Amino acid sequence: MNTNPFSLSGKVAIVTGASRGLGAGMAIGLAEAGADVVVVASSDRVFETAAKIKALGRKCIAIKADLITTAPIEGIFATTIKEFGKVDILVNCAGIIRRAPAIEFTEKDWNDVIQVNQTAVFFMCQAAAKDMMKRKQGKIINIASLLSFQGGVIVPSYTASKAAVAGLTKALANEWASSGINVNAIAPGYMATEMTTALQNSVERAPGILARIPQGRWGTPEDMKGAVVFLASDAANYVQGQVLAVDGGWLGR
Questions:
Q1: How many helical (H) and strand (E) elements, i.e. helices and strands, does the chain have?
Q2: Is 113 part of a structural domain of the chain?
Q3: DSSP class of residue 245?
Q4: Which three-class secondary structure state does DSSP give residue 90?
Q5: Could you tell me if 89 and 33 are in contact, meaning their C-beta atoms sit under 8 angstroms apart?
Q6: What is the C-alpha to C-alpha distance for residues 84 and 12, in angstroms, rounded to an integer?
Q7: Looking at residue 175, what is its pLDDT?
Q8: What is the pLDDT at residue 253?
Q9: Cα separation, 54 vs 193, whole angstroms
Q10: Residue 90: domain span
Q11: What pLDDT is stored for residue 2 in this prediction?
Q12: Which of 99, 113, 180, 231 is 20 to 30 Å from 152 by CA-CA measure?
């Protein structure tokens, strides 16, 4: 009997957006805690993440799929269940961003972001829950944002989608807690990833961002591992509908 409540030994996780950055970091973190992992992303770099997980001695399947439509979702779960027989953990990290002033924002940029960051998240949750309900247990972890709480600048669709992720997390927790499914979210702060390269290099904005982070540095994918392992583990069995900020103290300032 495993007496470590943080162990993920014997668990099967699906992580979207796992080709790089936070998604790759969290997928590796889950594997380090003992889980076998299905990594999903639209880039060929998802296979690099899979290789790193296999090097840890864990089983891993890489699926190249673009969640700009919901079409791949059925196949993602069919492949996972065929290979591993179940889904214990879902981490919805796939996300995109488009930057433009609201007055100039195009319908395509709006729809693309909402599709990947919001619609695909819901239907991934739905597909996971259908399998998890069979065993009356499962952990769903959505990736929210500081912009689930704040407005941001020139990112109207991203802000709208991440506010929706926070609300959806609470709504699904309300519905599915009685079925043994825990639904929570993580809101990363300013993270040093490829997605934020332009912001990190901005002479106008980067110094102000850094000055406002009490911990005095940008976060890294490594900083996400503890939070995702906690929420995926038995240690979080009575945690429901929470949006956990991993932000170096940003929201508390």
A1: 9, 7
A2: yes
A3: E
A4: strand
A5: no
A6: 7
A7: 98
A8: 86
A9: 23
A10: 12-248
A11: 67
A12: 231
Q: Which tokens is 228 given?
A: 């995702």
User: What whole-number distance in Å separates Cα of residue 67 and Cα of residue 215?
Assistant: 34
How many Å apart are CA 70 and CA 93, to the nearest integer? 15
Instruction: Report the C-alpha gap between 209 and 82 in whole angstroms.
Output: 45
* Per-position DSSP letters for 128-185, written without gaps between them: HHHHHHHHT-EEEEEE--GGGTS--SS-HHHHHHHHHHHHHHHHHHHHHGGGTEEEEE
pTM: 0.97
Domain total of the chain: 1
Catalytic residues: 158
Residue 1, in any domain of the structure: no
7 domain-assigned: no
Q: Give 35-85 as a DSSP string.
A: -EEEEEESSTTHHHHHHHHHHTT--EEEEE--TTSSTTHHHHHHHHHHHHS
Hey, what are 222's tokens? 């490594």
CATH no. for residue 193? 3.40.50.720
Positions in the chain whose pLDDT score sits under 50? none
Structure tokens at 181: 């499914």
Query: Two tokens at 189?
Result: 């702060």
- The answer to whether position 228 is within a domain reads yes
Number of Cβ atoms within 10 Å of the Cβ of 175: 11
**How is residue 93 written in tokens?**
């990290």
Closest by alpha carbon to 53, among 81, 94, 24?
24
So what's the pLDDT on residue 59?
98
**57 neighbors 231 (Cβ within 8 angstroms):** no
